[in-house]
Amino acid sequence: MTIKFVLLVNKQGQTRLAKYFTEFLTTDERRALEGEVVRKCLSRTDKQCSFYEHRQYKIIYRRYASLFFMAGVDDEENELGVLEFIHCFVEILDRHFGQVCELDIMNEPEMVHYIMDEMLLNGCIVDTNKANILEPVQLLETIDK
Amino acid sequence: MQSNMSSKLAAKLQTAKNLLKSSVNSLGPDREFENLIRSIGECKSKQEEDRIIFAEIDTLKQRLSDPKLDKTRGREYMVRAIYCEMLGHDVGFAHVKALQFASEPNILTKKAAYLALTQFLDHNNELVLLLVNTLLSELKSDNYIAVCTGLVVATKLIGPELINAVLPTVMERLHHPKEHVRKKAVMVLHRFHQLDPRREGSLAGVDIDRSFRTMLCDKDPAVMSAALSALHEVIKTDPKPYKNLVPSFTSILKQVAEHRLPKSYDYHRFPAPFIQIKLLKVLAALGVGDRVASENMYAVIQQTLKRANNTHMIGSAIVYECVRTITTIYPNPQLLAMAAESVSAFLKSPSHNLRYVGIDALAGIVKINSQYAQEHQLAVIDCLEDPDDTLKLKTLELLYKMTKANNVEVIVERMMSYLRTTTDEHIKKDIVRRVSELAERYAPSPTWFIAVVSEVFQLGGPHVESQLAHNLMHLIAEQDEDLHRSAVEAYLSLLDKPKLPERLLEVACWVLGEYGSLAATSSQNNTQAQAVMNKLAGVVKTQKATEGVKGYILVALSKISAQSGCSLTPEAEELVVKASSSQNVELQQRSYELQSLLTSAATSAASLQQAVLPLDGSCEDIDDTEMIRISTLSFLDGYVNDALKAGAAPYLSEEQRTFGGSKSLRDLNGDKGSLKFEAYETATAPSTTSTTFKQNRPGSSSTSSSHYEPHQPVQTSASSSSQHNGAGAPRASGPELQLRGTGKWGPAQFESSSPAAAKASAAAPTHSTDPRHADLLGSPLAARSQPTHVSERDRLAASIFGGSSSTSSASAASIAAAGQRPPVKAAAAAPAARQLAQAPPQRDLLDFDSPMKATESPAPAPAVPPSSSQLDLLLDLDVLPPSAPSSTHSFQPYNAYPTQHLPPPLAGAAAALGGMLPVDLLGGSILASGVSGGTGGGTGGVLPTVLGPASSTLQSAGTGFQQTGAATHAAPFNLNQGLASASGGFAGGMMQTPVHQGIGASQPIADFQYQYQHGMMAGSGLGTTMPLSSGGYPGQIMGVGSNMPPAAVTGMNKSNMTGAPMTTKPGGKPASNDPFGDLI
């Protein structure tokens, strides 16, 4: 039960954030994988379900305005659970950035990474408590100012 | 919602831009970062993006190599490098800089540098070594954010050999006052466990499991959740040591579900749903196959399931996880009923996501109890027809698990229609595998199988395993003339299509060669044969024929020519001549053989041809005793002695030879695991083996791949390499056995090569009188929906589900009946049958279990009389009462026919010959014996009479061979085939066996010529047949033990259900020397 990667891609197919867990792919492999995954994802309609299989991964995605949040998971993962985890992640981003949008993520990608590091370790969901997750991140913000 | 979002987005864009302007100072005075983000955000194409990044990389290189590097901007540079890497460009230049920034005191720079490192590197990178010291100082830092950063880095960059460097520090951090640190420290240990799951490396002797148990009791739920993840991982590796944790997990789950955790862990008013899901997964891992552990979970799972509901997606996620756990652990009827209820809610939902998980969960439930599929059949059909690919694919997966003999046609047709439309190679491969498996296991008739498999070849192309081709040829060979004729016609027209896959071409060529002469009525036989020849010759031009296919064509040409008696057409002639100068020795040899055979001036040319290339010779049988005699090669002794006296080098086994070439033989022959000869070694070889012979090949009995070479061992390398080249197709291997072992063709349907019976079995579901089925057709649900569509859906549902319901009851009934049936009523059999009849639920379980070990229990076709349906069942169990009345012979699978099999000792003897004996000699001939049983069976009750004469003929042929070997082989060029035919359909011979990878089997040309020159006679020619060929149906050997008395029923039954092979010796005692056991 592992989330292998998380991808944030806009509807033009441009990668906005990519984070891999437990397995390491070379730059070329990532590029190829992301290209295929994103192409498949963008070709899907609202009428279809939010999962599809690609190579050994099952991709679970959710769309927020122009941004697609995708998670590549293994066979064991609970699809609905991951779908809700994505939403939980977005809610936390929302609380941190205040009405999060694509540009926020582009401007502070490292913050998004730090938030995800609090929630996902080794591809396992370890924490979804908003206060817990945002505490160290907000501490960093105060140092920044 | 959408428009609302986009307007919000526009507003955000504005504010963000303003923000950016205000924070310019922190991002650097030259606004490089801002410009980069803006240009990336505005760019329209990938090319433009790449250009931007290339420019950015140049700037970054400059900045980072600048000696007056502004360290306060380290964070910005790192983020820029992360961008470049994320967009698919190599940023190797930044790696070392990132290392330097990691030791900066500024926490923001430090964190950014570490983040960059985790994005760029993996634990195999050498740079990580340089990082360890810095990392250790982070782990020991007073600043908990630094410690957290260090721990996150440790999960990603510490490899197996560095575990020891950081492990003590990480263990200390487990007691850090801050829960953020503890949670991450646990996950670092989790990672270390992943790197060394068996505790053989750096973790040897470290009791991190104890730490996990301790951390499970941590007061902070997040730490507990992390410990759960870790424990789940170790439990998956080995659940046994953790069974005592079941009460802890159940009580935690109970507390979580009862909302005892702080409100902050709620997600949409569901208490810590992600922790609940994880706990359910852990329980599933602990409860699988463990009744006691499972019983301790039932209550809490039930409670969790009740508390969760479908009001929100996350509730559904918990419900779904509950269902998955319920279907994984030891089943409980009450929970199953609840799970089924939840599944029906999923399936009725309009949401595709919920229907998707519903189908998935249903697959889990039907595995335990097939009944639950019944009520959802219409929902399942809807999902199957849904335009959504994912849903359709998932439904096909469910159907695959539900496939039975009576719905296989509908389901396979569904899969095929999906296969026709999909372009995804991974999915194609998957479906091809499934279709082939289902077709092999449940094919209702040979005609159907041939049609399906041929289409799979066309659609699946490169994904099809060669095994399927051999099975197809094998099956065609077993059928009667009508089918052969229609197969020939089908393949003739098929060859007109362009770009056929190689495997299909091979099958087509083989069929045309073997049965091409049947294509025509006798009056125009010659012209027709010539047309076939031209077609075959044309294949080389129209298709992309590989060497292997060409070999098939050459053999086919010679067979047609021999059987029809007409000479080669000019086109064919041209092909043959061309092949004689081919670089491929294999083809060359075939070409020369063919030419000599056809132009042979001997008076008996025609009869020789007929003898060498008999019509429909692939199903012939050879006699057991003859087989023993041949397999010992005793008739070679005189020749070997003469040769030794004349100064020839004695035979050396493979170990004694040092040529590199012989290695490939072993590769091809031995180590695949497909044929194991060791187990047979205990069998005593008949004493006819002469001592000289034994001396000549010391140790060869133990080397399965050594290869008999009476003279000039130097040629071995040539020979093995030629064989290597010639091996057009991979060798026969494991999967094939299944088809034999499970009595794949066993069901009554197999007999239905007559179209009427096939139709009857196909019609079975619709005309079934099964009450449940009748119920379905008149169900109120069906009546409510639109009538036209429903009737169609209904029909589909009926064809898929209707049968499966009747099956279990029918089979149970016939089991019960079998117990009372006179022929089987042996003392030992009766209790077994009773046992079966008493335990229907277990049977169900097995029924739906993974197809590999499932015993199929097809519903009897209505056309078949009751006694045969019982027999049917028996066949499922691979049991054959020897005293069965001859009228039922037609339902026997060939592999169960009692008299036609090599007894194990013989197989042992054959095997003991090791590499000397060609594999196909062993496998192929056994095949032949099996096949003829099957063919006989297929023709109905005449089997016994057929067999008698056949074997006596063969015997005489064999004897003739021994006595007049030289005469028979007046044409030494064709030792190979000559020997084959003389020994009575020696199935190993290259022209006759369908499984023979034909081409692959051949004699090295050098060898051949040598023998030719020396006028080597028949006996020595055996060397020719030897070469590896692949073929063989090792599975046939298993048929060996099937002539068992009823007493063996129990053993059979049991062994089959557990997936073990059915090799039970006549005494009901399991055969100890079954070499293929592990392949089933």
Automatic annotation (TrEMBL), chain A:
It comes from the Eukaryota. Its main location: membrane. One of its GO terms (cellular component) is endomembrane system. Pfam families: Clat_adaptor_s (PF01217). Keywords: Membrane, Protein transport, Transport. One of its GO terms (biological process) is intracellular protein transport. Residues 2-142 form the AP complex mu/sigma subunit domain. It is found in: Endomembrane system. Belongs to the adaptor complexes small subunit family. This is AP complex subunit sigma.
Automatic annotation (TrEMBL), chain B:
Residues 683-777, 831-868, 1057-1080 are annotated as: Disordered. Residues 683-692, 752-765, 831-843 have a biased composition (Low complexity). Its main location: membrane. It holds the Pfam family Adaptin_N. It is found in: Endomembrane system. It comes from Chlamydomonas eustigma. GO terms for cellular component: endomembrane system; membrane coat. Keywords: Membrane, Protein transport, Transport. The keyword Transport applies. Residues 713-725 have a biased composition (Polar residues). This is Clathrin/coatomer adaptor adaptin-like N-terminal domain-containing protein. GO terms for biological process: intracellular protein transport; vesicle-mediated transport. Residues 53-601 form the Clathrin/coatomer adaptor adaptin-like N-terminal domain.
